[in-house]
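INFO batch 0412 | record 1 of 1 | parsing
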Amino acid sequence: MSTALVNVLSNIVRSAPAIFASRTCREALRVMFQHPESKCIIVCNATNEPLGLLMCDRFFLKATGRSGVDLFYKEPAMKLMNKTPLIFDISTPLESVLATAMSRPDPMKNDCVIITRKGKFAGVVYISDLKRS
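INFO prediction complete | emitting tokens
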């Protein structure tokens, strides 16, 4: 594996907030508002392994579009996360990440890609950053 490819991917990794799988939608919304610069929230287990992805724009629409807001707030955030997000190790070639990301269905094409280091959450990559690299 070329070091240049690893460096390119590691240079575009962004930080993103993470929450535990046990958190409620209300707690996830609070995290979202505390990190307005982030497009997503990562749901992790107790050992910091990513389990799912909450895209903030979609999550916010669900939060504000429901009639039973009190019930929504109490639901586990896991119920609304994408349970099959793209997850790649930091050593994956940038070209592979981009090709896989672009082959997703249209509604998910702009979803963040979760990056791990030895199986632990390390950050996210935005599709716009992948395309520019």
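INFO post-check: The longest helix spans residues 3-12.
INFO record closed
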